[in-house]
Specification:
The chain has 618 residues and is an alpha/beta fold. The protein folds into four domains: 195 residues, Rossmann fold; 199 residues, Rossmann fold (3-Layer(aba) Sandwich), CATH 3.40.50.300; 112 residues, Arc Repressor Mutant, subunit A (Orthogonal Bundle), CATH 1.10.10; 73 residues, HRDC domain (DNA polymerase, domain 1, Orthogonal Bundle), CATH 1.10.150.80. It contains 25 helices and 17 strands. The strands form four sheets. A seven-stranded parallel beta sheet has the order 3-4-2-5-6-1-7, with helices on both faces. Strands 8-13-12-9-11-10 form a six-stranded parallel beta sheet, with helices on both faces. A two-stranded antiparallel ribbon has the order 14-17. A hairpin with a 6-residue loop joins strand 15 and strand 16. Helix 2 packs parallel to helix 3, helix 16 packs across helix 17 and helix 21 crosses helix 23. The radius of gyration is 29 Å and the shape is globular. About 4% of the residues have low confidence.
């Protein structure tokens, strides 16, 4: 039997290669460069691990994260493959043992971070070794257009040039647009590589976007329905991670947390708790997950919208790595767009880029955000939207996403469309040029924004005609008009320009219909039928009476607790905290934790009893 098949079966336990693996393995064994684009869980690692075992010397694997190196080496060692890593988490003695083993030829694979390649001591050491292959994992990190750009990746070609003999180069990634793929090949200096693109589709993943009024209230039932599964909840900020994780713990979930603000030891401990299923829910920022080798993630829920579709698909793709059905759910609100814009605007500038290049990257970030926003707004197939973006052919319907399997109705929004389109034209007539969505929205909603007033837009007949519509609803109108081709967005200035279809709506009576999930349609409450039994319904409190009655009830509850525990009233809760409870009326642990003056200990001790009292008045 061919040696590669022998190792494939004995070491990795597979009787045959997966799609795309064998051509890449054969090319590397023949000394060729390769470039593999394969989905998460598609078996990229085997494509360089198996050749490394058959080639003479040691294969270097450039990996972006310490956690990924440890996972990979631990898995390989368990398989009996001699592998090691060198990174900043090791003690001096541990690193010396690895260097000694390298010189003695004990390892077949060595994992390193790209930053290590610039250290003279490391370069001198490996120059004396036989290196037949350098594999670059997460290769999209070399492109400034990729969502995880790492300037240190740009140093890889320089390191290769300083080796006595050029090794074969292998580049692998799971998420890369055609533009990023071109960048990877050019910047790494791949020589006529054997390219395999197996596709981006993950049929076992079910995608959906929910637009709840309160996100935590939507998250709870999703997690309760998946108590037997392990999953990740991604949040956009550290503060959100802390809040959601603590609330989930109080609501009885085995949740842990991960973000860059934690100490290294806690991050490592929390990650291990998740990997070994001691904690079934990981609440994290995007600092968690790249290369995490956990196959039984049953769901990935995004509490906030990511900044790009690449980031979303990479993070969502951590679900169902074992091929089992898994859910990828995004909880969207219009505020997510503002948060994402803020993260783009306040992101640290890259010293390796010129001001012009930095401006280009920022502009590209805004365009990617627009694509991500479009995903959340589409009424078409979510999978098709993703595959379109990555340039892969697809069917119009996947039958396995929230939109394809959802119950939809058509809503007539002709009147609202006429208001929006009329405002766009009237602002243009007033100023002599088209403007962006934000300024049109401010005008429609009657904002006293300084720019609106300075430009005299408050004098237009369309000023304030959507004053009663919330920001989310207004955005839905714009999304529908852009998707339907009534408006187009200028790529350079992001201004809104009406199309000929818009004039048909304004001047020729064309109707505008918006496809919308039935659950999202507000239904008018039905009046009780005349034959229905009459129920005695008590007169409701007036707002003032209800607020005062609730405050007094909470004070009485606090008094009883303080007497029982033998402590002053303020030790239970201050008056200010009770007044905030009256104002906010918390009904879940997340809400309760958001009340000023309520900490974790008090929420655990008093949350249920106080919320029970509040419930009597709500």
């Amino acid at each position: 039997m061919d040696r590669k098949y022998d190792l494939l079966h004995k070491i990795f336990g597979w009787s045959s290669f997966r799609e795309g693996q064998e051509p890449l393995v054969d090319a590397l064994l023949a000394g060729r460069d390769v470039f593999g684009v394969m989905p998460t869980g598609g078996g990229k690692s085997l494509c360089y691990q198996l050749p490394a075992m058959l080639l003479p010397g040691v294969t270097l694997v450039v990996s972006p994260l310490i956690s990924l190196m440890k996972d990979q080496v631990m898995a390989l060692t368990a398989l009996g493959v001699p592998a090691a890593y060198i990174n900043s988490s090791q003690t001096g003695e541990e690193a010396r043992r690895v260097y000694t083993g390298l010189r003695a030829g004990e390892y077949k694979l060595l994992y390193i971070a790209p930053e290590r390649l610039t250290l003279e001591g490391f370069t001198e050491t490996v120059r004396g070794l036989r290196i037949p292959l350098v594999a670059v994992d997460e290769a999209h990190c070399i492109s400034q257009w990729g969502q995880d750009f790492r300037p240190s990746y740009l140093k890889i070609p320089d390191f290769i040039s300083r080796l006595p003999r050029r090794p074969s180069l292998a580049a692998f990634t799971a998420t890369a647009t055609p533009e990023v793929r071109e960048d990877v090949e050019r910047l790494l200096g791949l020589r006529s590589p054997v390219q395999v693109v197996t596709g981006f589709d993950r049929p076992n993943l079910r995608f959906d976007v929910l637009k709840p009024h309160k996100k935590y209230d939507a998250l709870l039932p999703l997690l309760r329905a998946r108590r037997d599964k392990s999953g990740i909840v991604y949040c956009s900020t550290r503060r959100e991670v802390e809040r959601v994780c603590e609330a989930l713990r109080l609501d009885g979930f085995a949740a842990t947390r991960y973000h860059a603000g934690l100490e290294d030891d806690e991050r490592r401990r929390n990650q291990e708790d998740f990997i070994y299923d001691r904690s079934t829910v990981m609440v994290a920022t995007n600092a968690f997950g790249m290369g995490i080798d956990k196959s039984n993630v049953g769901f990935v829920i995004h509490y906030n919208m990511p900044k790009s579709l690449e980031a979303y698909y990479q993070e969502a793709g951590r679900a169902g790595r074992d091929g089992s059905p898994a859910d990828c759910i995004l909880l969207f609100s219009p505020g997510d767009i503002m948060t994402a814009r803020h993260l783009i605007e306040t992101g640290s500038e890259n010293p390796d880029l010129s001001p012009e290049e930095q401006a280009q990257v920022t502009m590209r970030d805004y365009k990617r955000l627009e694509v991500m926003s479009g995903y959340c707004a589409t009424s078409g197939c979510y999978r098709a939207y993703i595959l379109d973006y990555f340039g892969q052919a697809h069917t119009d319907s996947c039958s396995n996403c929230g939109n394809c399997s959802g119950d939809f109705v058509e809503v007539d929004m002709t009147r609202e469309a006429q208001m929006v389109l009329s405002c766009v034209l009237r602002v243009h007539d007033k100023l002599g040029y088209y403007v962006g969505q934000s300024l049109i929205t401010h005008t429609l909603r009657g904002s006293r924004d300084k720019r609106v007033l300075a430009l005299g837009l408050d004098g237009l007949s369309t000023y304030g005609i959507l004053r009663g519509a919330d920001q989310g609803k207004t955005r839905e109108y714009f999304d529908a008009l852009l998707t339907g081709g009534y408006l187009r967005k200028d790529e350079t200035h992001a201004t809104l320009i009406p199309t000929e279809s818009a004039r048909e709506v304004l001047f020729r009576g064309k109707r505008v219909l918006r496809r919308q999930k039935r659950a999202a349609v507000k239904e008018t409450p039905r009046s009780p039928s005349r034959g229905a039994a009459r129920r005695e319904i008590p007169e409701p409190f007036s707002p003032g009476e209800r607020e005062n009655g609730l405050l007094e009830a909470l004070k009485l509850l606090r008094l009883n607790i303080a007497r029982e525990e033998g402590v002053p009233l303020y030790v239970v809760f201050s008056n200010a905290t009770l007044m905030e409870m009256v104002r906010l009326k918390p009904r879940t642990m997340a809400d309760f934790l958001a009340v000023p003056g309520v900490g974790t200990v008090k929420a655990k001790r008093y949350g249920e009893i106080f919320m029970s009292e509040i419930g009597k008045f709500v």
